[in-house]
Amino acid sequence: MELIAYFWEQEDADAVAAELGGEVRRGRFHGEDDDEDHPWMVLLRDADQVRAEKLIAQHDGWLETETQEPVNAPPELPTAPKRFKLPTAPKRYKLPTTPRRAKQ
Q1: Which region ranges are annotated with the description Disordered (predicted)?
Q2: CA distance 20 to 14
Q3: Whose CA is closest to 13, among 31, 38, 32, 34?
Q4: Domain ranges, ordered by start, for the chain
Q5: C-alpha span between 42 and 49 (Å, rounded)
Q6: Cα 63 to the center of its chain, rounded Å
C-alpha cells in the first residue's frame, strides 16, 4: 500500500523521507495557486504504517492513504422519448363559436 504524508516544512518532509525511505515532492491542493502555500509531500511505498504514523506525528504532519474511488457506471439511457401527455387526452377547453358579422 502506498502512503502519502504531508508536511508544511521541507525539513520535516526530508527527515521522514530519510528515515522511512520515501520520495519528497511538492504537493498541491485543488484551487491553490501560490507556490508558498503548497505542503511538502512524502510518498512512502511498503512502509510500516504504525511506525510511519508515529514518525509523521512527531514532525507535525498528517497521513493519507491513496485510495481509488469507485467508478460509477453511467446511468441507463431511455430507449424512447418520454411522453408527458397522453396521445388520446381529451381537449379540456373549447373556444366558443360565434357567427361573424358581415362587413358593411
Answers
A1: 61-104
A2: 10
A3: 38
A4: 2-65
A5: 13
A6: 19
Query: C-alpha cell of 56?
Result: 509523521
72-82 pLDDT, tens digit per residue, is: 888 888 888 88
At CA 17, angle to CA 13 and CA 19, rounded to 5? 120
Q: Using the Cα atoms of residue 83, residue 88, residue 93 and residue 99 in order, give the sign of their dihedral.
A: positive
Q: Which of 10-19, 45-54, 91-100 has the lowest mean pLDDT?
A: 91-100
> Among 39, 2, 37, 8, which residue's Cα sits nearest to residue 22?
2
Among 69, 52, 70, which Cα is nearest to 61's?
A: 52
Residue 79: count other Cβ atoms within 10 Å of its Cβ.
Answer: 5
Fold (CATH) for 2-65: Alpha-Beta Plaits (3.30.70)
